[in-house]
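ok posting inputs for the coenzyme a persulfide job
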Amino acid sequence: MAFDAEIRQALIEQVRRFVTEKCIPLEAQVGETDEVPQTIVDEMKQLGLFGLAVPEAFGGLGLDMETECLVALELGRTSPAFRSVAGTNIGIGSQALVLFGTDEQKQKYLPGIASGDLISSFALTEPEAGSDAGSLSTKAIRDGDHYVLNGTKRYITNANKADLFTVMARTDPDTPGAKGVSAFVVERNTPGLSVGAPEKKMGQQGAHVCDVIFDDVRVPAENMLAGEGEGFKVAMSVLDKGRLHISAVATGASERLIKEMVNYAMEREQFGKPIAQHQLVQALMADSQAETYAARCMIMDAARRRDAGENVTMLASSTKLFATEACGRVADRAVQVFGGAGYISDYGIERFYRDVRIFRLYEGTSQIQQIVIARELMKAAKADLL
Ligand code: COS
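and the output
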């Protein structure tokens, strides 16, 4: 069901105000200190941002995908580290529970995720299993009414703050590939679970990724999500949604960068006039706008179709491929329009340039999106649906 239009507009305006008044003034500080201030986290809780995608019955706002994307577009208009604070609770950290959790599992965890009192993370990637997620080797071996987990997860967003992990692990070591994988909810304080130090990254200071190490971690069998062997599908379904959300965040960043480049180009004078009056600079601005508008349209269309119950695997991958690659080009053009200033930290453009680079990598690289799109096309062709 579509979200009430007035409530939606009020929420979007509230988020835009929060981003403009609270987050943007702190961008440089967050970039330098590598920490989003607690006051901001508290405000995000009050705004309900942690529970955007948790059903109302469990304390969230229960937004449809279209509204979630509109909010994500707003959150994208500042340093991505701010969005990342609530990002895993909104997306990959909560959605396995939302989509596949039993009523007891939902009752136990979703209210805390929605309020932001519980931080949730998604643990799929491993040192030897990145794009080839189905080859993961973390094991979950049944022992009575528990599964015993052993292995290492890598680059896990918000792991250092997480209270809860959705973990994909191999319950059937004799079955290679996607089929032997199951998904579990694992609490941070379970004995044997430890979290590594945050990695030093190219960008997105203030957002953290760490290793998560499982050393004979005993997880109750009732914490399994969906059935045994269903974990890969759980992960992929979560990523279908996550890829739309990330597309919206990236496109919000593109819109912010366009605003920055146009304002700068109208003020900065060279050859006796504002550089915005030079046609080669106009081309940089215009191409950025055309691509960003296209990305926004793709996001809205795919989100509405998901809300209507359509399978959006191909659309989500198409949107993520286009929106994140476009964002990379827009960020590059923003540096170009700013010229030397674009390379200097004080102007913040180089920070955005570094921050947005990850959009083309996480939740599936651009090359993985291409593979998904091509496979879906061939499936559709076989079914005579093209
Ligand atoms: N939704 C539901 N089920 C899905 C699915 C989706 N979007 N995509 C695949 N599946 C199912 C398939 O239907 C298949 O089940 P059946 O054997 O019952 O038909 C199963 O999952 C395995 O799928 P597939 O054979 O396509 O798996 P592959 O190992 O070939 O890999 C890719 C598929 C490459 C698409 C996958 O590994 C992937 O997305 N990798 C990138 C991972 C990623 O995004 N990592 C980012 C880190 S998480 S932030």
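notes: The chain has three domains: 5-115, 120-229, 233-382. Residues 231-267 form the longest helix (37 residues).
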